[in-house]
TrEMBL record:
Domain called Beta-ketoacyl-[acyl-carrier-protein] synthase III C-terminal: residue spans: 232-319
Protein name: Ketoacyl-ACP synthase III
One Pfam family in the UniProt entry: ACP_syn_III_C
Domain Beta-ketoacyl-[acyl-carrier-protein] synthase III N-terminal: from-to ranges: 113-188
Keyword rRNA processing: no
InterPro entries: ACP_syn_III_C (IPR013747), ACP_syn_III_N (IPR013751), Thiolase-like (IPR016039)
Keyword list, A-Z: Acyltransferase, Transferase
Length: 333
C-alpha cells in the first residue's frame, strides 16, 4: 500500500453526462421473474440505470466538458492537462484522451493520456493529477472518468444486467488552497473474479464482463476500511472530521455495510445508486453531482472518497477543498 499527503488541486466543478435512455429494473421482471427482480432491487437499491448502445466515452465526455468549461468561463488555452480513466475506450488506439482533446479544441500544449482503471479510477486519477500539478507548471486540468459498461453485458445476464449504468464525469481541477491524503493499493490475484477475458490480445473477441459477487464483497470488506483508516491517519483526521463520505457506488447493501464498518454517521454517507446503478469510475463524481446541489451552500468541503473493485485495486482520498462552483448532471439524447 502507498499512502502520502500533498498539496492538491481545488475542485472547481464537476459535471456528469449520461444517456437519456433509462432501463427500469422493474421492467426486467417478465424476463427474470417478478420475485427475483424484487429481491435484486431490495438488496442493491438500484431501481433504474442510464444505458446506451450508441454513445462512446468521448461523446459523453465532450458534452460534460463543454458544460463545465462554459459554466466556469475557462479559456481553452488555460487547460494544460487531460487525464481519462476508462476501461471502455473509443478505440484500441489512439488514446481516448487524444480524441477528447481534439473534439474540445484544446491546444497542443495539453498533456493527454488514458489510465486503464475501473471503480478505483477516480481517486487514482486525482492522485496522478495532484502529483503532476505539484511538480510542474500546470494550472488547470480536466479529469474524465467513466465507462459504457452495459455494452459489455448481454441482456440475458441476470447477475449483471440490473446493476450497471453508463455515465461519464468530467472534473475541473485548478491549483489553489487544497490538500489531500491518498492511500492506493492493488492485488492482481483478484483479477479472475472481475474480468472481461475476451476483447484483448490474450483472448480476442467481443468484451463480456464476468463478476463473482461473493468475491467482490469479500475483497471490499477486507480492503476498504483499512485503506480509509490509513488515509485518515495520513491526513491527521478522524472520520468525524469529514463532511461527506463518498464510496464507490456499487450497491446500497455494500455501502451500508462499509459505512457501518468505518463508523461513519448516516448523515455523512452519500448514496446515489437508486437512479444510476454502478457507473464504474464515474460513480464517485456522479454521486457528487447528485448530492451536492441538494445541500446547503458552504465555502469548503472535507471529503472522503474511496474507490474499489476490478484489479483488485483500491484508492482513498481525504480531500480538503473549496466547494465547487458547479455540480450538475446532463442527459444526452
Amino acid at each position: 500500500m502507498t499512502a502520502f499527503a500533498m498539496t492538491a488541486p481545488v475542485l472547481r466543478g464537476v459535471v456528469t453526462a449520461m444517456p437519456e435512455a433509462v432501463s427500469e429494473n422493474a421492467d426486467l421482471a417478465p424476463q427474470f421473474g417478478s420475485e427475483v427482480m424484487a429481491k435484486i432491487i431490495a438488496a442493491t437499491g438500484i431501481e433504474r440505470r442510464p444505458v446506451s448502445t450508441v454513445h462512446t466515452v468521448s461523446e459523453l465526455a465532450v458534452v460534460a466538458a463543454e458544460t463545465l468549461i462554459e459554466a466556469l468561463e475557462w479559456a481553452r488555452d488555460s487547460i494544460d492537462l487531460l487525464v481519462v480513466v476508462t476501461q471502455t475506450p473509443d478505440y484500441p488506439l489512439p488514446s481516448t484522451a487524444c480524441v477528447i482533446q481534439n473534439k474540445l479544441g484544446l491546444g497542443a500544449q495539453v498533456a493527454a493520456f488514458d489510465l486503464g482503471l475501473g471503480c478505483s479510477g477516480y481517486v487514482y486519477g486525482l492522485s496522478v493529477i495532484s502529483a503532476m500539478m505539484q511538480a510542474g507548471n500546470i494550472r488547470r486540468a480536466l479529469l474524465v472518468t467513466g465507462d459504457m459498461t452495459s455494452r459489455m453485458i448481454s441482456d440475458d445476464n441476470r447477475a449483471l444486467a440490473p446493476l450497471f449504468g453508463d455515465a461519464v464525469s468530467v472534473t475541473a481541477l485548478e491549483t489553489g488552497q487544497a490538500t489531500a491524503a491518498f492511500d492506493l493499493g492493488s492485488d492482481g490475484s483478484g483479477a479472475p473474479y472481475l474480468i472481461s477475458k475476451t476483447g484483448g490480445l490474450a483472448e480476442p473477441g467481443t468484451p463480456e464482463l464476468f463478476m463473482d459477487g461473493t468475491q467482490v464483497m469479500a475483497f471490499s470488506l477486507r480492503q476498504v476500511a483499512p485503506s480509509i483508516a490509513r488515509a485518515l491517519t495520513t491526513a491527521g483526521k478522524d472520520i468525524a472530521d469529514i463532511d461527506h463520505v463518498i464510496l464507490h457506488q456499487a450497491n446500497a447493501l455494500m455501502l451500508r455495510t462499509l459505512g457501518h464498518k468505518i463508523k461513519a454517521r448516516d448523515d455523512q454517507m452519500v448514496y446515489a445508486v437508486r437512479d444510476y446503478g454502478n457507473t464504474s469510475s464515474a460513480s464517485i463524481p456522479l454521486a457528487l453531482c447528485d448530492y451536492l446541489p441538494k445541500q446547503p451552500p458552504r465555502d469548503r468541503l472535507e471529503l472522503l472518497l474511496c474507490g474499489f473493485g476490478v484489479g483488485w485495486s483500491w484508492s482513498t482520498a481525504v480531500w480538503s477543498t473549496p466547494a465547487p462552483a458547479i455540480a450538475a448532471i446532463v442527459q444526452v439524447p
